[in-house]
Amino acid sequence: MNKIGFNVLAWSAVVSDELKPILDRLREMGYDGVEFLVGAPDEPAYKRLGDYAAGLGLETTSVFVLGPEENPVDVSPAVREKALDKIKWTIDRAHDLGSKVICGPFHSAFTVFSRQAPTEQEYEWSAEVLRSAGDYAAQAGILLTPEAVNRFECYLCNTMQQLSYLVNKTAHPNVQAMFDTHHANIEEKSLAGAITAIAPVLGHFHISENDRGTPGSGHVPWDETFATLAKINYSGWLTIEGFTRNDPDFANSIGVWREFSEPWEMAEKGLEFIREMSKKHGLAG
């Protein structure tokens, strides 16, 4: 059965006790889980917030990105080793949160470009890092789900075809794939075709509107999306990822320059929308 989650990046990129009232309300609304960005250096905060979420009956998932100094496809072995170290640190923090899934474009560094198309060597390097990370994640019972993102944020994996190639090259049971409707809306010719292509290794799913606002308010082909998820019998998370300028530092880092939707509007209407679409298309939400 699909569980419905909400990414708290709509409020803050920092894992702290200030998120507790937000978790309270999300649980009251009927969410099954919440997703956190792993990155803030306050390590004890992850365990505190994970325990708090568990006490509310909320499950957790995690997301993160890598920077240029920790790039899995860098020509330097030392930099690739730093990438693996950062992923392992993230796995530890996700374990503190109680997460069983980690997602994000950690196959390569975020917004770092080589000024050429991806090479076979880069896929080999990324797969090597992900394979070692998969071994570490397995010890914590965590599934890693790297994400294909749009051409303005990375060059290694923009499409499900590329991501499927990388995941299959990695060939590790704790490394699957993530699908994000915002990025797919930019890069894929057909969302149905892309979802079908990635289905054998699909481990996590982000419900995200074309402009990152409230799901259902834009032009993502949602009927096609949910019908295809039902067709492939997808049973994983359906997690809303929408962005605002509530956390200016984070918003600036990802190019969010205006408000798309107010966070609670996004959470309330988004939950209703996912439930309606799941029922309409026979997806077990």
Overview of the structural elements:
By secondary structure, the chain is α/β, with parallel strands linked by helices. The protein has one domain: TIM Barrel (Alpha-Beta Barrel). Helices cover 45% and strands 12% of the residues. It contains ten helices and eight strands. It has helices at residues 20-29, 43-56, 77-97, 120-140, 160-170, 181-187, 191-198, 222-231, 248-253, 263-281; strands at residues 4-7, 33-37, 59-63, 101-104, 143-146, 177-180, 202-207, 238-240. The chain has an eight-stranded parallel sheet. Helix 2 runs parallel beside helix 3, helix 3 runs parallel beside helix 4 and helix 4 (120-140) crosses helix 5 (160-170). The longest helix is centred in the N-terminal third of the chain and has 21 residues, at 77-97. The N and C termini lie close together (6 Å). The mean pLDDT is 95. InterPro entries: Sugar_Epim/Isomerase (IPR050417), Xyl_isomerase-like_sf (IPR036237), Xyl_isomerase-like_TIM-brl (IPR013022). Residues 23-276 form the Xylose isomerase-like TIM barrel domain. It comes from Anseongella ginsenosidimutans.
